[in-house]
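Box 3.1 A note on notation
Throughout this textbook, protein chains are presented in two layers. The first layer is the amino acid sequence; the second is a token string describing backbone geometry. Keep the layers aligned when reading.
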Amino acid sequence: MLHKRILLQHTLLLCLICLCLPAAALPGTAPDSSRTRIAFGSCNSQLEPQPLWQSIVAAKPDLWVWLGDNIYADTREMAEMAKSYAQQLRHPGYRQLLQNTPVTGTWDDHDYAYDGAGKEFEKKAQSQQLFLNFMGVPKNAPVREQEGIYRSYTVGEGDRKIKILLLDVRYHRDRLNSVFGLYMPNETGDVLGEEQWQWLEQELTDSDAKLHLIVSGIQVLPTGQSYTNWAAFPQARERLFRLLEKAQAATPIILSGDRHVAELAKIDLKGYNAPIYEITSSGMTHHREPRAGGNIYRVGEQVGALNFGILDIYWQSDYTAILLQIRGEENQVLLEEKLII
């Protein structure tokens, strides 16, 4: 209840903060020592124009987070996978970002293997090494010895610490349940695998971070389109919710991609005293038309345009303000939500 009381106490401050946040968040302004800016995106084809990098660089993020489908390799051949990564690394806009911005992230099916691939992919160990090479992960990093790319990344320290939990939703994911060509929920199937579940519980339970970003290549909250999100595996989705309730980690926010549209969603869990938000940013090089339905947890409307995400954290002495944004070309704000914690 303490977390809820804090939210209520600072509700009156929200209007004043909302007035000043957009100006402070404008691209091209001087870095703010009281602000941490994390940018993120997904669904980026190395074969198509990539017009968003100029805007992303102009936003001056402290970190860029890939949310999956970072390239479209769609292959079982690792030589072709390596060529696709190399092509993306040569892109001038992405090279400019890499000059001044740290990069981390996770993968999804198109940069893991091929459309819909899961644990059955026979070359997943080799694919893991190519992905980690693309991310610039050191050769001696422990993640190179485990099965799957899941790992954590920390930004800041003390009372300004942000922990980023990069989930692997492909390496251990069970098969989708297809009946006569139609996808149905796999009631007993898993997404993460037992070792990753144990790792995630420890990372959440033992954490002193102020904010926890849970990065999933596929959406978590929506229950529609069950063949493309966690709803395809109801038992695993419910296990994730129960883990969030058990661990009580401070301010979990889910970042996801995959859907070729952007949207914001939130859910109220019985065992957690604040809404759990999910922001989906997709795609960077191609998109589809927005839809009105399909996500009962949606806040606002879907965004059907090329987009990337911005998460601004404004650190104050007695509260923290969080600005969630979806932006398009020229840093146009397409979707926005403000939180106080």
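The domain at 2-10+34-340 is CATH 3.60.21.70 (Purple Acid Phosphatase; chain A, domain 2). The two ends are 13 Å apart (CA to CA).
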